[in-house]
Amino acid sequence: MTDKKEFWRWKEYRWHDETMDWKNADIISTGVDIGSVSSQAVILVDGKLYAFSNQRTGSDSPESANQAINWAMENTGMTLDDIHYSVGTGYGRVNVPFADKAITEIACHARGGNFMYGPSVRTILDMGGQDCKAIRCDEKGKVEAFLMNDKCAAGTGRGMEVFADLLSVPIEEVGELSLSVEEEPEPVSSTCVVFAKSEASALLREGWPKHKVLAAYCAAMAHRIVTLLERIDVQRDFAITGGIAKNSGVVKRLEKELGLEALKSTYDSQIAGALGGALFARALETKRRKS
Amino acid sequence: MASQAVLDQETFETFRNWRLNRAQYAKEWKQRTGGRVMGYFCTYAPEELMYAAGILPVRILGSHEVQDVTEPHIFAMFCPFCRDCLAQGLKGRFDYLDGIMIAQSCLHIRQTFTSWQKHIPIDYSYYLPMPHHVQSRRATPFLTKELEVFKDSLEKWLGKTIDERAIDDAIEVYNRNRRLLWRVYELRKGDRPPLTGEEAMEVVLSSQMVDKQDHNAALEGLLAQLSKREPARPTGTRLMILGSENDDMEFIRMVESFDATFVIDDHCTGTRYFWNDVELDGNRLHNIADRYVKRVPCPTKDWPERTRVRHVLELAEAYGVQGAIVIQQKFCDPHELDIPALTRALNNAGIKTLFLEFDVTVPIGQFKVRVEAFLEMLQEDDLF
After folding, report:
1. To the nearest whole angstrom, how far is the Cα of B371 from the nearest Cα of chain A?
2. ω before B152 within 30° of 0 (cis)?
3. Which listed residue, of A135, B109, B184, B293, carries a Cα 20 to 30 Å from A171's Cα?
4. Cβ(A125)–Cβ(A241) below 8 Å
């Protein structure tokens, strides 16, 4: 029997800036975002992005945090002792063993989004693994208002993973494939992951091709997120963070329904939370030195 | 002299015991006084009149436990509070009640009342048609007449008349309780309130469960202790909580586990219950009626003018509120209708708000991240 292919499994990876020398740095700060699905560690050297890692969260949050930071530091010569201040964020924020402080992912995404997309950003949509947040912030990246989806995982990364698996389409290809339909189908009627999956199975039995089913699901997800965004009064500029930001099938449909284009960034959208944490860590270390 | 720790532990013990052992208290009260106990469903119930008749009025509240006994009797899209209350009756947790009554407020809690009437054997029940249009000049005369009818009904049930003097005494006891509670709340205006929101909730909830004379004596003692009490924790961000019924101690405790203190509320289980006195001037039933017509209103009665918005803003200013948590029981339409106006008014006054929808049990984990993020919004300016 062959191993079943895990279509939902996205690529874990790390990066560091080989041109940067951290040894003479004044402040080395880190943010570790332990999300429900993925974990990231970001290391800033004097406020500049030096290294990050992005991996799947395991069942043990402290272990995931250790793995994330160790992976980010791999081949850099850096150790935990070199880091001046660490902030934990995400649902596992209080379980980061080496963190000096825990800050919510809402504050961290706003701050990380501000760094990634610039000070013109006023509305940030974080589409995470198991929840979705609409955040309004000021020019410094401080939260002014926020809303979260309630009670269910509809419109989140976990739902998209379920669909990738159901249709045997690698998760990274879902977005583009869904956009290859000639005509947009009606969205699936439910965004509840379980009900939508049943509905999709029925559509497949009716003979719908995969890309059409994916288009119907991406459209339903986009619509659900737009209803959340409308409740917070979307202000320009608008940006998206989190894993689903990489899914063009959801993003393009969401932009169309909203009538607003999201800003583009060269940074990986998944590291926004950890990046915001590292920026808070830098501010906290500066404050600590002053006091 | 008692140490601060001992003082802290003992200060609120009486109130906490009353809240946790309310059935035992009521049963002992009946034995002690030979009186009857009346459960009521909404704070528009004219307790003075019942108390004057030698009755102990007690408020029916829920238990915040998941239950499956109300499904056949009340709609699932009626608010969780009214379902939770009915569940307590169906489970026999109010088996010491001799009667139940309601003064009309909302449809949902009235369904609890009528379902209770139908399915739980009880000696006496009474529906008081409290007017909705309390802003009408005809509201007080209307309610005065209704109170006369209610008084007749109570007299028939008890087989005795309720005399003027007993009504005067009852008004005196109730007004005293309101003034003492108000003095406790006044202490929360200070820079370092000597009690937390959780402790204040303990005090005000228990007042709806026990004989006001017992409660008054305990409040006198409490005030004496609070005047010399040093709070054991920093006040942090000064919060207001407002919305529908709220006796969710776990939620209050969770919020105050952060650097924040609730300094004031606008709940029918809190300030709306006791904020207004009965003013004595002529006919006593008229005075009582006037008190319930003019009290801080529940949203079911706050129209066409939304007077509560002004009241909430006044409270926020007087108590130095920095942020407000606006809650509503799921499916509570009257509060839902008021929330946009209240939120806008608070935001315009520079007070940020966090909206949360409550159910029988609240998802503490999910709410925790929202509360923490809300507090971060109000604090940490120096990190930007």
Report:
1. 10
2. no
3. A135
4. yes
In this prediction, residue B2 carries a pLDDT of 45
Among B363, B369, B376, beta carbon nearest to A143:
B376
Measured distance CA(A76)–CA(A19) in Å, rounded: 11
CATH for A13-112+271-290?
3.30.420.40
- Tell me what the pLDDT averaged over chain B comes to: 95
Q: What is the pLDDT of residue A191?
A: 67
Burial of A172 (0-12, 13-18, 19+ CB in 10 A): middle
Q: Among candidates A75, A78, A60, A41, which has minimal Cα distance to A278? A: A41
Strand locations in chain A (E):
13-16, 28-34, 38-45, 48-56, 85-89, 101-102, 123-127, 132-137, 143-148, 238-241
Domain with CATH 3.30.420.40 in chain A: 13-112+271-290, 119-262
β-bridge mates for residue A39, sequence order: A34, A55
Burial class of residue A182 (count of CB atoms within 10 Å of its CB; 0-12, 13-18, 19+):
exposed
Distance CA B176, CA B219 (A): 10
Q: What is the DSSP letter of A3?
A: P
- For residue B281, give both structure tokens: 């001037």
pLDDT band at A157 (very low <50, low <70, confident <90, very high): confident
Q: Are the C-beta atoms of B100 and B125 separated by less than 8 Å?
A: yes
Is the domain A119-262 a CATH 3.30.420.40 member? yes
Asked if B102 and B127 count as a contact pair (C-beta separation under 8 A), the reply is yes
A107·B357 Cβ contact <8 A: no
pLDDT at A43 over 90: yes
Q: Which of A61, A108, A142, A231 to mutate to test the interface with B (most CBs of B within 10 A)?
A: A142
Strand partners, B262: B239
Which residues, in sequence order, are CB contacts of B383 under 8 Å at separation 6+? A280, A283, A284, A287
pLDDT band of A154, cuts 50, 70, 90: low
- Residue B3's pLDDT band, with cuts at 50, 70 and 90, is very low
Using pLDDT thresholds of 50, 70 and 90, give the confidence band for residue A77.
very high
Which long-range contacts does B15-24 make (Cβ < 8 Å, 24+ apart)?
A: B15/B202, B15/B203, B15/B206, B15/B218, B15/B222, B16/B202, B16/B206, B18/B206, B18/B209, B18/B210, B18/B215, B19/B202, B19/B205, B19/B206, B19/B209, B22/B58, B22/B209, B22/B210, B23/B93, B23/B94, B23/B96
Name every chain A residue with its beta carbon within 8 A of the beta carbon of B366: 148, 150
Query: What average pLDDT does this structure show over A150-168?
Result: 79
Q: Using CB atoms within 10 A of its CB, is residue B31 exposed (0-12), middle (13-18) or buried (19+)? A: exposed
Residue B232 scores a pLDDT above 60: yes
Q: Decide if pLDDT at A151 tops 70.
A: no
- Residue, of B365 and B178, whose pLDDT is higher: B178
Q: How far is A56 from chain B (nearest CA, A)?
A: 21
**Closest Cα in chain A, distance from residue B384 (Å):** 6
The Cα B117–Cα B120 span in angstroms is 6
Q: What is the pLDDT of residues A172-207, one digit of tens each?
A: 999 999 999 999 999 888 767 788 888 889 999 999
Rounded distance, CA B223 to CA B381, Å? 36
Q: How far apart are CA B241 and CA A70, in angstroms?
A: 43
